[in-house]
Amino acid sequence: MTTEVRRPTRAEMADYYRALPYANGLPMWEPAPAAWHGGPEPWPPPRVPAPAEQLEQWADTDLADDGFHPVAAIVDGKVVGGSAMLSFDITVPGHRQLPMGGVTATGVIATYRRRGLLRKLMQAMFDEALDRGEPLATLSASEGSIYGRFGYSPATMRARWEIRRGEAQLRPAADDRGSLELADAAAARVAWPAVHAAVRAERIGELTPRPDRWDGLTDTASGTDGPLRYLIHRDQQGAVDGIAHYRLPWSPTAERAGTLVVEAFEATNPTAYRALWSLLLDFDLTQLVVAHSRPRDEPLRWLLANPRALRVTRQSDNLWARILDVPRALEGRAYETPGELTFTIEDDPMCPANVGTWHLVADESGADVERTDGQADLALDIQALSTLFLGGGSAHDFAYAGRIRPVTDDAVGKLARMFRTDPEPHNSFAF
Ligand SMILES: CC(=O)SCCNC(=O)CCNC(=O)[C@H](O)C(C)(C)COP(=O)(O)OP(=O)(O)OC[C@H]1O[C@@H](n2cnc3c(N)ncnc32)[C@H](O)[C@@H]1OP(=O)(O)O
Fold first, then answer.
1. Which of 35, 71, 82, 269 is deepest in the core (most CB within 10 A)?
2. Can you give the residue ranges of every domain in the chain?
């Protein structure tokens, strides 16, 4: 039996897609409690396999994209697994842009699983990312038990929350001199990229969008969910500074009838943020607003006269991060609290250059990271460092879990103060 792991040829692309759950109509995610799905139905609509013409069209589009890096597992000449990295920039502390490889659709067909093919695919993608100069890998995990072994760890979180319309009074604020506008998909496709570009410059964890990120927005209804609807906010000068898209799905039960589901929401400033939520929370003939994939530290809570009215119904990990190159990643961000720290990474078989003791000297302008033979302040695993890297997570919690082992006094406190960011990192879309 021969096993190859390499970039698929154009002729192999249809079989490459067929190895991936999303092209096969197979589940792509662990069974999500109904609470994750925004709408009143327990599940999104069923999936179906993509037709052959669709696979060919994807192949043409994907292979024309310099930022798409597919890798296939080929056993005895047959494509049985695949994955791909997408080159993005991610906003890191200090509001800098760091190149990263985002792992997207991944699958090994059922009869070839548990024989190490994903590990080989992942290793190949790590090596290629390092060659491209991407010191960080990220992904969204279909199951929480798979990716820790490859060095990934949750780095951003997301929350789903609900607010009953009757409880949604906002605290008083100055009049908004801007304006709100109901928009169609064509307008939304223009507005989103501009708003997102401004938002991601400020929000740690946000990503550069792929070119097709907004192309698929339509005005067409989807099943009982109804069409996506778009709401735009403009500032006093008429420039778009916020946008939401939402649905008003039909519900089979009286309890969930009148639900407004906010599928996406971005605003570049507090005025636009408040104005958009004001309308969405007081939409005639609705009784409940549901938003999902929102930051845990949603400012809306502090706009409400009754902060408890915003009820988080689920929270979960969102983006998982994996530092591939410790010095380049840590030198790629800034540190609000200046400091020096010496730390040891004891074990990293997939990225062995990370192993060793590192001396970090950091401040608001950046950092220097060098190998040292000196005494470490602490030892930690690559997963813990990958979570803390974007400024989320708690160094104290990792220490409590035995994942950070302090050697010197206050080492964990120093690590926490140097790495943490406020607000916590968040990414508004997956890939
Ligand atoms: C980023 C994303 O795209 S998330 C989507 C991932 N895709 C899916 O979930 C689709 C359905 N699942 C699959 O296609 C496959 O099971 C994959 C891709 C998840 C794993 O592929 P495999 O080739 O079986 O993985 P591989 O044999 O390399 O396993 C590597 C290790 O992970 C473990 N592992 C793999 N899948 C799972 C799983 N679902 N649950 C728990 N452990 C797992 C293996 O036991 C193995 O452990 P070891 O290192 O201790 O030996």
1. 82
2. 3-134, 159-315, 329-419
